[in-house]
């Protein structure tokens, strides 16, 4: 069967290679070749977005990303919705996943999202966490008769940890809570001989031995401070040398050349031993020192002098995130500590007083007739917490301090002090 007849009298089949292939058929002259169908322009086939094709399981685009101009032109205009109508599901997903996108610039950021525990996909399943899926073995005892029984039985009988061991583990976890930025602690006392420098060293050593970040103690005592004598001296450099070479310090290893480090990893930046030179340590000098140290350390402790009116004290109080008021167990020591709080309240540091912690340090073997419970209740009503440090023969020596040589009660009290101070880390994150 033949196809229709062309004007020239030749028969043309219904289908040929000329209509299905771009290659010219050998039997068709070039002048009689059918032209190839023209494709529509590319711009006419622009992608038409369909809202139903969005997958809500995919993460949303960055709020700063700009849409392609062709896609903007191709999107049909949506009719205006009433104001009370809820936003589309995609917008709700973006707001839930990116709460910062709706915040104005310069405003306070919302709290960071917390990790969510995964559940069974069908709903009704248990939490897929290690605490639910992994069998937890009983913790081994660390002290007392429980430890003796555990070791005496060849580790076959495990009575578990004691309440004291559990309490110690909870305090260590409290000390290790997260800290953002640099936390500055000022150690204050109007009366000498109450153990302020010793408390600075033991508190800093407790932080440095338990936490993985860097801890440094600065001696800001204008009257020949003794903080550098509490750990082995590695360098004769002082805070004056650090300020002199501040422009050349760019790395932690540069700062480390000016500090001495003890066995607990606590570093100490010593003060000048010449009282005539150290008296010139001004407020501006202290601010420069802290501004430099906060780039390399997470916790900075400042051992202040007994006077509140010397030149560097205003810089210490303005820069401090928390205070540790050190008092002895005597009446005159308690009155001096209370007078310190009165002076701070009267000079505009009432908020700092509320964030402070009081330490009642027993510098004598016997407490005498002073009621320490009433003394602790007095300071508990004015400060955030009160911690008692018992008498320890190793601290009475006045030499280099080694945490391993302290009695168990003293180490537990220092752990409670560090945990109480660390409670301010969370409040400091909320303020910042």
Automatic annotation (TrEMBL):
Gene Ontology annotations for the cellular component aspect, listed alphabetically: cytoplasmic side of plasma membrane; cytosol
Organism ancestry: Bacteria, Bacillati, Actinomycetota, Actinomycetes, Pseudonocardiales
Name the record gives this protein: MinD/ParA family protein
InterPro entries from the UniProt entry: AAA_dom (IPR025669), P-loop_NTPase (IPR027417), ParA/MinD_ATPase (IPR050625)
Superkingdom of source: Bacteria
Residues in AAA domain copies: 184-328
Organism for this UniProt entry: Prauserella cavernicola
Matches recorded under PANTHER family: ESX-1 SECRETION-ASSOCIATED PROTEIN ESPI, SEPTUM SITE-DETERMINING PROTEIN MIND HOMOLOG, CHLOROPLASTIC-RELATED
Stretches with biased composition (Polar residues): 1-21
Biological processes per GO annotation: negative regulation of cell division
Biased composition (Low complexity): 30-53, 63-84, 91-109
Pfam families named among the record's database cross-references: AAA_31 (PF13614)
GO MF annotations, alphabetized: ATP binding; ATP hydrolysis activity
UniProt-annotated stretches for the region Disordered: 1-147
